[in-house]
Amino acid sequence: MSKKNVLHVKNLNKIYSKNSNKSIHALNNLNLEVKEGEIFGLLGPNGAGKSTFINILSGLVKKSSGEVNVWGFDLDKNPRQVKASLGIVPQEVNLDPFFNPKKLLELHAGFYGVKKNQRITEIILKLVSLEDQASSYSRNLSGGMKRRLLVAKALVHQPPIVILDEPTAGVDVELRKNLWENLKSLNDQGVTIILTTHYIHEAQQMCDRIGILNKGDLVALDTTKNLLDKIQTKTVRFVLNNKANIKDNSLDTLKIVSNNNNELIVSYEKNKLEIEKIISFLGNQNVKINDISTDDGDLEDVFVNLTKN
């Protein structure tokens, strides 16, 4: 059974007019769909249009043209329902320092019109591992706890879609790991997650599908696996018992990165040359291979290729 689209964007444009003869195209004819239950990553360098896109969804920025449909609701006709379908976690930590997490979540649920007997404050605090800090002033929380409290705030009205704008910018490794575990458990419960990030390895590990924005244009949209499969160049490091006699193009597409004493590093196009041929070439020279390690390239290589000027 195919999953339904929970976000549908058609020909979305945002143009900022600086003066009469100069305008900036923050988004150019953006078309994308996000499916229910997936973790979708939107990548791009600074100024690519990621935050503009999220600000349009949240109602902070007015689009210039195009259609946006969230959870079956049209942004122009049903802005309130669109807002209710989304939980947005901003980049900036914006919390009232004098409220404790429990009070803050209760207050926020009230803003969304969630009745007292339908609030799930305790469940949310547990979900983001803040139950022990439920009664501490926000100002006394660590940076990591504040980040998790922002996620909690976005969940008070139980939205089917949660959007995170650079959720781990400036966050330490331990906290980042913790935040991802929280998001994974949310996703396991059926929540669709959309995130922007410029931590490419993060997107590679977390996302089912990825869109890459550059200067307002969507330059790629595919599953993470398909994007990675587009990288043709593979690098291999051999540890040998002797120096190998091997040159560029000794085999089809082979390039020597370095060849010093016992270490040989080569690169080649994986669709034209198989590693077995390199191994047998070395074997014919009576060189013994003690160790092999490979690097298949990662999303960063795709990203760099697509966003090169």
In short:
This protein has helices spanning 50-58, 79-85, 101-111, 121-127, 143-154, 173-188, 200-206, 224-229, 275-283, 299-307; strands spanning 5-19, 22-35, 39-43, 65-70, 73-74, 86-89, 161-165, 192-197, 209-214, 217-223, 233-240, 255-260, 263-269, 289-295.
Which terms summarize this structure?
309 residues, alpha/beta, four-stranded antiparallel β-sheet, elongated
Structure notes:
This protein has 309 residues and is α/β, with parallel strands linked by helices. It folds into two domains: 5-229, P-loop containing nucleotide triphosphate hydrolases (Rossmann fold); 233-307, Alpha-Beta Plaits. Helices cover 30% and strands 32% of the residues. It has helices at residues 50-58, 79-85, 101-111, 121-127, 143-154, 173-188, 200-206, 224-229, 275-283, 299-307; strands at 5-19, 22-35, 39-43, 65-70, 73-74, 86-89, 161-165, 192-197, 209-214, 217-223, 233-240, 255-260, 263-269, 289-295. The strands form three sheets. It has a six-stranded mixed beta sheet with strand order 6-7-8-3-9-10, with helices on both faces. It has a four-stranded antiparallel beta sheet with strand order 2-1-4-5, with helices on one face. 30% of the residues are buried.
Tally the structural domains. 2
CATH superfamily of the largest domain: P-loop containing nucleotide triphosphate hydrolases
Helix content: 25-40%
Strand content is 25-35%
CATH architecture of the largest domain: 3-Layer(aba) Sandwich
* CATH topological fold name of the largest domain: Rossmann fold
Rg result? 24 Å
